[in-house]
Design goal:
71% helix
Length: 348
């Protein structure tokens, strides 16, 4: 989900901004589900598939040459652990505390779920719940880690074999869309949807790798605003036929947007904002749901809702953004620096 730029590697600032937009879209999705309800007509949940595709591209861009030159898997794993796990841990911990605070029948079950979530084990299934009920977005991090491991352990596939993998995974994606009537619950809702998550991650991640290998990310004169507007327009505009639309968006449109974002040189005035937005995206993705739950159950929240029904979700998202910014400064950066000292060098 995250861009890691090593040494002289180019930093894709527009993709950073797009990642921040996608994280906000996911936060908005969960705010609507928790506090407003109603049938979801747009495709905002496909922001996760955008993350998978983006991850495939940036991981290949950052590590493909190094892995081909002999980088050990243990080194790769250390770098990814340092980058990903600190926020997974704090997101699982915060979500677990919120889950425990909301229980009146003992803390054993939420404690087991929280520990399982910290270990990326879908412990919620053992208690009749979704995979990671303390912090649901962690389901995608499970598949992110799996995709990273498979990528690093696999030898460089021939063009024909890799093309076959892309084709078969695309067909599998379409089949999953048909079987589950879209991707909204795939990856976390039941054991079957969790198993389908392996199919869900394969195509977009492999498509991202293909974007790098085919050199489709070379810079061109794309205006900065185009990919930044195209992504939310695609995910938030209602489109009829959920399953068909999900398949077309994920198989065609999202990889095209990753290409578009990679090829875009940002306007100088926007560069600091895009960088900050990109850095904010990962903690926002992992912290927003527990914070939204706190706001939903806060004392006198009905008074706020009576003023306008959108005020509680907006307030929750604002608090999640602020908490994420604080977490970057006081937790994520210091912890990653400490882990770097003990586990190995990584360029942030």
């Amino acid at each position: 989900m995250l861009t890691i730029v090593q040494g002289h590697k180019q930093h894709f600032l527009v993709l950073d901004g797009m990642r921040g937009i996608a994280a906000l879209i996911v936060a908005g999705l969960h705010a609507r589900e928790l506090m407003i309800g109603g049938r979801l007509l747009d495709h905002s949940y496909l922001a996760v598939d955008f993350f998978f595709c983006l991850s495939g591209f940036v991981i290949a861009y950052a590590y493909e040459g190094r892995l081909a030159s002999g980088m050990r898997f243990a080194t790769f794993a250390k770098l990814r652990l340092i980058r990903l796990y600190p926020m997974i841990f704090i997101g699982a911990l915060l979500g677990g505390l919120v889950l425990i605070a909301g229980r009146k029948d003992g803390i054993m079950v939420p404690t087991i779920i929280t520990i399982g979530t910290m270990l990326l084990i879908p412990a919620g299934f053992f208690f009749g719940k979704q995979a990671y009920p303390s912090d649901n977005p962690i389901w995608s991090l499970f598949f992110e880690v799996v995709a990273n491991i498979v990528y690093a352990l696999s030898p460089r596939l021939s063009g024909r074999f890799f093309g076959t993998l892309l084709l078969l995974s695309a067909l599998g994606y379409v089949a999953i869309c048909y079987a589950f009537d879209g991707m909204q619950l795939v990856g976390f809702d039941t054991w079957w949807s969790f198993a389908a998550g392996f199919v869900r991650v394969t195509f977009p991640f492999a498509a991202g790798v293909a974007i790098f290998r085919l050199g489709l990310h070379r810079r061109s004169g794309v205006p900065t605003w185009l990919p930044l507007i195209a992504l939310p327009a695609l995910l938030l505009v209602p489109i009829a036929s959920q399953a068909i639309a999900d398949a077309v968006i994920a198989l065609v449109c999202l990889p095209a947007l990753v290409v578009l974002g990679a090829r875009t040189a940002p306007a100088a005035a926007l560069a600091p904002w895009l960088r900050a937005f990109g850095e904010l995206s990962y903690p926002l993705y992992l912290l927003h749901q527990p914070i939204l739950r706190v706001v939903k159950n806060a004392p006198h929240i009905d008074v706020v809702r009576s003023i306008h029904p959108l005020l509680p979700p907006v307030l929750g998202i604002i608090l999640a953004v602020v908490a994420s910014a604080v977490a970057i400064r006081v937790y994520d950066r210091p912890v990653r620096k400490l882990l770097t000292t003990h586990l190995g060098r990584v360029a942030a």
